[in-house]
Amino acid sequence: MEEKFFKSPNTYIGLVKIKVQDLERSIQFYQDVIGFQVFKQTKRKAHLTADGSSVLLTIEQPEFVKPLQTSATGLYHFALLVPTRKDLAKILHHLSKIGIRLGSSDHLVSEALYLSDPDGNGIEIYTDRDSEKWIWNQTGVKMAVDPIDTNDLLSELENRDWQGLPSHTKMGHIHLHVAELQNSQTFYEALGFEVVSRLGNQALFMSTGGYHHHLGLNTWKGIHAPSAPEDSAGLNAFSIIFPNKEKREIAAHQLDFLDYPVIKEPEFYRTEDPSGNKVHMLVKET
């Protein structure tokens, strides 16, 4: 994992907040299956960490919550980036041992495992290949959806002692279902992201600083899919981390010019993308 993609001068993804139907069930899953620690917990909310201090994921059980709306926009998956291939091998062994149903892909730039939580929220756990080995051309970075060589990955194991998520795990990216690509692209370009790859007219990937992607957008739920109801399980909000206040102000002005309201809260700015996905705009604390 290369730290340069997740610090100034880049803009990247921070905290992800999701809604669940049963908080205790979800806490057990995220501890026992994914390997998070509980940083703080209240009656209806839990803040989850990998290092004991930085919160990567917040899970909340609203008072009245309905099952995930499968035909609506929202979260496709959030993606946890682990530092090394050996870390991913330990996680694969752990998940296989406890019988979790998994998907997997070799994306050329990374190797990834896919699963869902008890509410159907998508999760990716991945590790990056060395960025010097990524292939760039006139259309962007080359990515693929190839089968992962699980035997080769598991050969990285020196021992089978799984101890949860590594402390240096980061929120690598987020991938969203959106209602339409062009307006969504324009919105996130206003926030500073650039398109680095496309999958036909169905999906695109965006980043800053030459990363393979901090953000994915797709229309796999259908063109003009509706926004998820407020009382549905699924994505609540996610944070975009700006390197300084000036870049956040520029982004806010650009959204305002495009007629996307930006509400300035004491700790963050909040807005919504064209598909109703809630975005919190934060500045990296120094």
From TrEMBL:
<dbReference type="InterPro" id="IPR004360">
    <property type="entry name" value="Glyas_Fos-R_dOase_dom"/>
</dbReference>
<protein>
    <submittedName>
        <fullName>Glyoxalase</fullName>
    </submittedName>
</protein>
<dbReference type="GO" id="GO:0004462">
    <property type="term" value="F:lactoylglutathione lyase activity"/>
</dbReference>
<dbReference type="Pfam" id="PF00903">
    <property type="entry name" value="Glyoxalase"/>
</dbReference>
<feature type="domain" description="VOC">
    <location>
        <begin position="12"/>
        <end position="128"/>
    </location>
</feature>
<dbReference type="InterPro" id="IPR018146">
    <property type="entry name" value="Glyoxalase_1_CS"/>
</dbReference>
<keyword id="KW-0479">Metal-binding</keyword>
<dbReference type="InterPro" id="IPR029068">
    <property type="entry name" value="Glyas_Bleomycin-R_OHBP_Dase"/>
</dbReference>
<dbReference type="GO" id="GO:0046872">
    <property type="term" value="F:metal ion binding"/>
</dbReference>
<dbReference type="InterPro" id="IPR037523">
    <property type="entry name" value="VOC_core"/>
</dbReference>
